[in-house]
Amino acid sequence: MNHAAHPSTDLEVNAVEKSFADYRAVDRLSFSVNRGSFFSILGPSGCGKTTLLRMIAGFIQPDGGDIRIGGRSMSGVAPNQRPINMVFQQLALFPMMTVGENVAFGLARRGMGKAERLRKAEAMLERVSLGGSAHKKVDALSGGQRQRVAIARSLVLEPTLLLLDEPLGALDLKLREHMKIELKQLQAAFGTTFVYITHDQSEALVLSDLVGVMNKGRFEQLGTPQSLYYDPATPFVAGFVGANNRIAGRVDAMASGLATLTTAEGWTLEARTKGDVTVGQAVLAYVRPEAAVLARDPHQLPGCRRSHSGRVDSVLFDGANSAVLIQESQSKVEFRIALPQTGQFSDLVPGETIHFAFDGERAVCFAAGATA
Amino acid sequence: MTDAGPLWMRRLLLGLLLAPALLWLFLLIVLPHLDLALVSFRERVAPREYVTSLAQYRTFFIEPLYWQIFVRTAILSVIATAVTLVVAFPVAWTIAKIARGRSAALLFMVCLIPFWVSETVRTLGWMILLRESGVMPALLVKLGLVASPPELLYHDATILVGLVYTSLLFMMVPLVSSLESLDNALIEAAYDLGASGFTVLRTIVIPHAAPGITAGCIVVFMLTLGNYLTPNLLGGTSSQWFTEQIYNQFITRFNWEQGAAFGFLLLALSTGMVWLGLKASGQRFADVMQRA
Amino acid sequence: MRRLAPLVLALMAFLTVSVATADDSKRLRIISWADYVPADVIADFQKETGIKVEVTLSNNEEMISKLRATGGAGFDLAQPSQDRILGAQQEFRIYKPIDLSKVQTAEFLPDLVDTVRKNASLDGKLYALPYVWGTEGLVYNGKKTKIADYTDLCRADLKGKVAVRLKRPTLMAFAFASGKDPFALYNNVKAYSALMDEVGKTLAACKSNFRFFYDNKDQLLNGVRSGEITAAMMWDSGGWNLGRENPDIHFINPKSGAIAWLDTYALPARGKNDAGAYAWINFTMRPAVAARIARQIGNFTASKGADALMDPKLKAQFAVTFPDGLKNVRWYPAIPPGLEEIEGKVLDRIKAAN
């Protein structure tokens, strides 16, 4: 925080790689994380994100490349000597100690006196709204409280970097939603740089300043949550971040970055091109469910857009996230469209015919077979 | 009605199921002990004539010889238990945390091998290795470490070696099981928070493994205290084990009364030590026994 | 408890039935010393009588303890030493008297029968018959040392090279070597105690000479063979055996006299096959059988006719060890009850001494 005058990087990863037997977990990866930011690494399980995190923490030695934390190279520095702390997936609170002892553990390792460290631990617990819990047993706490203890245990050491390894994974949905917000607030309050690992795109989008979408040991895209969502760089990102309708087709025509494509069954639609796309090429198009608008009467659709129709397959009611699954009349492709929050169309019934349209600028298409 | 029936019926059923075990317990453990207890409070006054008295226990406290053997046995057993723990811990750690799959099983097997032969054969094996004309002294001479073959048998240290060897497995099993249940993330978390290897051992590993350690120590201590063969065969001319004294009283002196009293004193000793051990380590007997 | 009682009874009945189904008259259970009941003799005996012999190996103390534990049941024939019968019988009533009418008394050496009669009779009833006898003396390796009496085992030059048993024969031997006669003090508890205390001190003082106290014969035999032990108290057959293997090893009659033991036949009080036991006694006292057994044990038998059939080599060795016959040999008299306790404490003190 005191270096806020000239924002600098807290973590630099340069061409780091790691292989296990014939399997490449991390493939010459480079990125840097700015001081005080919330950085997420998002990817499916097996993408190498945990390996990457463990290399940053020092539990695994990279095969090549360099990791610098706070400007200092970490090669040859043991985990207990690094200016970072980690919140583990299952939290790894010490069950043989009280909450206070857990939080004071790292301070004791730095040789701080007992009275002093217990006072600091209590103050820290206060900041995570757990004042007065120091004497409690770890297993007497709720899931959310334990989460906060785990974070407090790390933050009390004022690390340059806090690593979080899917810390919300073990919580139930409601608590997870709540803890997302709490984590964000905590990070803002402490100003510590967070490096957060998750396979849950919603967590990454909500929490992060920057997200690296990882796949097969590499970053597919590094950007703000907005850019990932609205401007995915690869089909993988388009498919992985947020819900998306995927349609395979062939390009008929191109005009100012907008491609007109037709599926094998003859359904024609429009999408913005990403990367090298030429006429006649096989492409994959992605359309967000909320990009399309519905109408019972095709004339009520915005005039400038191409209109499509389909038969209602099923209505998925989920409050604000309600959607309808439609079978497009031409191609029989399943197409998901978000229901407007106004409650309109909540009376749709399966079998009904419905019309829809979307702005081609809000759909993207990639050359098929580039990276799926 | 799939219910098991009225309460009394279920109780009867449970009773019948437990009957063989209870019968076993009663006939083979409780009854003989009751009989021994009665015998220990007898004193022979003339051939075939006995009176009730505390003479046998009095003898134990008056005769310093028996005291010395008793204390010696206790101390050596404690040392043997401690050494066993120190030797077994790294092996158990390797099996539980480092070795994977086949190599872990192999390591365990290596610890099990000594138990394929009887204790007698094992002990005689040690004798063949350690005696003056045996393998080890010859090796020491060959290596030029000593001028003439030393006698490695018949020392207290030899007894300890034999006891530790015999006890290793019984320490390993509860240790491995308690170390296996230790989440690796706890160790990494401690490292991550700045702990050194020793601190991790002291603050995380040992507290977690405490029930296993206590269970192993109790089992080994009791086995060691009650061992007869190993101290007898490996020990020197001055080494007496308390069990040897009990055997002597029963078999060679025909003094069942004294032997029974000694037996109960040994029982009291082991019970007392176990209680002390549990107290000192802050463990509960039930928790510990689940580990053993 | 009430519910358990029928179960206990049922269990006991089951055990009794299963044990009783074995035909007792076709089975002879002997508790004896190692080598005393050779397998080929068992086979011949079974061929002749149809009785199957089962052997349990033991020693004097265990024999008494086992029979005491069951009140004399579990075995049909025991072979304790003659001096250990009377005290045990007075105290524990574990034997039944011998019916001489069922024994071929003519086969026995009369001298030995007399010895047994003197030591193993109670209330005018005889409780044992002689079987095999031998002596316990000294053995040494002539290449490394030379000894003449028990006290020589405590010589400074034999430090760490001696082995004895930590048992009563050693106490007796050292008592004789000190010029006293412990057997004469058997019925004078006070004087006997004092003598034992004295012997105990002597032995404790020379403890550094003892490499180990041996408990089984192989431990001693191996020690002498390997040269770790150069002098020891030993039984005659073992000593002569070693002498045949290595002419440097001599078994001698010590100056204070070897101590002679005599092992016997005795009938446990609740034995189930007395007829079989008598048949075995008569069978094994036949000169040819007795000589065969004696050859295997390496000792002499109580069978009168067997002497002529004995191994001439053994006879020669006997003559070397005992040039004057058995003149300077002490026979164990019966031990009165209670002495073992006195000796036991002395033995414990020796063991505990530093």
Blueprint (SSEs and pairs):
The complex is a heterotrimer of chains A (372), B (292) and C (354).
Chain A: E1 9-20, E2 23-34, E3 38-42, H1 49-57, E4 64-69, E5 72-73, E6 84-87, H2 99-109, H3 114-127, H4 143-155, E7 161-165, H5 173-190, E8 193-198, H6 201-207, E9 210-215, E10 218-223, H7 225-230, H8 235-240, E11 245-255, E12 258-262, E13 268-273, E14 282-287, E15 292-295, E16 307-316, E17 323-328, E18 334-338, E19 353-358, E20 363-367
Helix pairs in contact in A: 2-3, 2-4, 3-4, 4-5
Chain B: H1 7-40, E1 42-46, E2 49-52, H2 55-62, H3 64-98, H4 102-112, H5 119-130, H6 135-142, H7 156-180, H8 184-192, H9 197-225, H10 229-234, H11 242-252, H12 256-281, H13 285-291
Antiparallel strand pairs in B: 1-2
Helix pairs in contact in B: 1-12, 2-3, 2-12, 3-4, 3-7, 3-9, 7-9, 8-9, 9-12, 9-13, 11-12
Chain C: H1 4-20, E1 27-32, H2 39-49, E2 52-57, H3 60-70, E3 77-78, H4 86-92, E4 95-96, H5 110-119, E5 121-122, E6 125-126, E7 129-141, E8 162-164, H6 168-177, H7 189-205, E9 210-213, H8 217-226, E10 231-235, H9 236-245, E11 249-252, E12 258-265, E13 267-268, H10 274-285, H11 287-297, E14 300-301, H12 312-321, E15 329-331, H13 339-352
Parallel strand pairs in C: 1-2, 1-3, 8-9, 8-10, 12-15
Antiparallel strand pairs in C: 4-13, 5-6, 7-10, 7-11, 7-12, 7-14
Helix pairs in contact in C: 7-13
List keywords for this structure.
heterotrimer, A: 372 residues, alpha+beta, OB fold (Dihydrolipoamide Acetyltransferase, E2P), 2 domains, 6-stranded mixed sheet, 5-stranded mixed barrel, B: 292 residues, mainly alpha, MetI-like fold, two-stranded antiparallel ribbon, 13 helices
Describe this structure in words.
The complex is a heterotrimer of chains A (372), B (292) and C (354). Chain A has 372 residues and is of the alpha+beta class. Chain A has 2 domains: 9-238, Rossmann fold; 243-367, OB fold (Dihydrolipoamide Acetyltransferase, E2P). Chain A is 23% helix and 34% strand. Chain A is built from 8 helices and 20 strands. In chain A, the strands form 4 sheets. Chain A has a 6-stranded mixed β-sheet, sandwiched between helices. In chain A, helix 2 runs parallel beside helix 4. The longest helix of chain B is centred in the N-terminal third of the chain and has 35 residues, at 64-98. Chain B contains 13 helices and 2 strands; from the N terminus they run αββαααααααααααα. Chain B has helices spanning 7-40, 55-62, 64-98, 102-112, 119-130, 135-142, 156-180, 184-192, 197-225, 229-234, 242-252, 256-281, 285-291; strands at 42-46, 49-52. The two termini of chain B are 40 Å apart. In chain B, helix 1 crosses helix 12 (256-281) and helix 7 crosses helix 9. Chain B has 2 domains: 1-40, no CATH class; 55-291, MetI-like fold. Chain B is globular. Chain B has a two-stranded antiparallel ribbon with strand order 1-2. The mean pLDDT of chain B is 87. Helices cover 76% and strands 3% of the residues of chain B. Chain C is an alpha/beta fold and 354 residues long. Chain C folds into 2 domains: 23-133 and 261-329, Periplasmic binding protein-like II (D-Maltodextrin-Binding Protein, domain 2, 3-Layer(aba) Sandwich), CATH 3.40.190.10; 135-260 and 331-352, D-Maltodextrin-Binding Protein, domain 2, CATH 3.40.190.10. In chain C, strand 1, helix 2 and strand 2 (52-57) form a beta-alpha-beta unit. The longest helix of chain C is centred in the N-terminal third of the chain and has 17 residues, at 4-20. Residues 1-5 of chain C have low confidence and may be disordered. The chains are: A alpha+beta (372), B mainly alpha (292), C alpha/beta (354). At the A-B interface, strand 6 and helix 2 of A face helix 8 and helix 9 of B.
